[in-house]
Automatic annotation (TrEMBL), chains A, B:
SUPFAM superfamilies: S-adenosyl-L-methionine-dependent methyltransferases (SSF53335). The keyword Methyltransferase applies. GO terms for molecular function: methyltransferase activity. GO terms for biological process: methylation. Keywords: Methyltransferase, Transferase. InterPro entries: Methyltransf_11 (IPR013216), Methyltransf_Superfamily (IPR050508), SAM-dependent_MTases_sf (IPR029063). The keyword Zinc does not apply. This is Class I SAM-dependent methyltransferase.
Amino acid sequence: MQNIYDNETFFESYLSLRENNEGLNDVLEIPAFRSLLPDLQDKVILDIGCGFGESSKWYAENGAKKVVGIDISQKMIHKAKEINADKKIEYYNLPMEEIEFGENEFDLVVSSLSFHYVEDFCSLIKKISNVLKPNGLCIFSQEHPVVTAKKINNGWAKSETGAKTHWILDNYQEETMRKQTWFVDGVIKYHRTIATIVNTLIENHLNIQKILEPISTSDAEIINPELKEERRRPPFIILKAMSVK
Amino acid sequence: MQNIYDNETFFESYLSLRENNEGLNDVLEIPAFRSLLPDLQDKVILDIGCGFGESSKWYAENGAKKVVGIDISQKMIHKAKEINADKKIEYYNLPMEEIEFGENEFDLVVSSLSFHYVEDFCSLIKKISNVLKPNGLCIFSQEHPVVTAKKINNGWAKSETGAKTHWILDNYQEETMRKQTWFVDGVIKYHRTIATIVNTLIENHLNIQKILEPISTSDAEIINPELKEERRRPPFIILKAMSVK
């Protein structure tokens, strides 16, 4: 289990990225993710890889009855309790590999950009399926398989002038660990194909309801035209599935 | 509606490719496709884009009660009647855009590598959903969206010595026509994202059961090691969905 978020350099760089809304999360991933959410009124929600609690807080403020936020990083959970505390939220310093909640405990399990860090995806999905109520929803985003496939650090091929010429795709069927540099060296992610992701959900009684490969909001693209580059290859994939156990 | 298969040059080149088992169909697409089929005993099957009837014939020989094979190409239907006739098969020269069969007429609708030729995918899927019995299955393969996305003819980037360095991915969100050269100039295909393909099925009451991004059979890879290159990017996608109307 990787705990890169407790690395001092990584933690500070990541916080700064998120606080300045510099990343793709705010303009691309979060709006698409939230468009998939059901009415949150009175829902009991598990937020896996909650980070510093930005989304957990938002769920609490938007009608959830109870939110459980878990994260492997002690620093993140500390920060979450500091800046995104709420009487409806319980934060736990816990890796997603070790979720041990009651059967049928949650109406909704959400996870934003965490699942590409988990080695045993099938075991994770099995656990989620177990803690979800019948008809409960699992909504998660992760790096798109055309992104996690790459073994080199930067997937863009570039011209001599530095312009992006195309996205490099390779090693797609090699479902193994990928070591990358993101703020620090040795960030570990796991590549899985779209087929594996979808079929693992289905085999664990999670019925696919929608898949998104989001682009930036039009407002964001007007402010920052460079975001249009994200249309050239999908950076993220978001899946919504319903428990049919 | 495109009828490239009635082009003399295209038709002869395509037949030669298929008859010599030179293409990826035989070693990669067909084995994966058939692994998704249910027991065919007494099934009424619609085979969309049946070509020269190779698969229609196989369904008839493997228990189907009735097979309806349709294809836009008169030449293909002529050839199908000539080499793959069977008393259980009806062949019609009909474009897939114009299927007009009875409601709930089929247990199984199959289509092999045809749907990337259709412009209005949603209308096609609506028609399929309509002719499928409740709990009936739709299984189809098409070129993978990482392949249809490309605007240039060859998606492999190559080194000076001609070795494949990686697959070129670009223009992913641009869901429009692509003109390619395949035996002849001006072969028209339509690119759609994975999200669009999956969500169109779901919106038309077709519940995703499985997705495959097939690799070659191990036998074929031993005989022709070059086939391992297909692992570097998925050439095809195959979807299996069940009618839940």
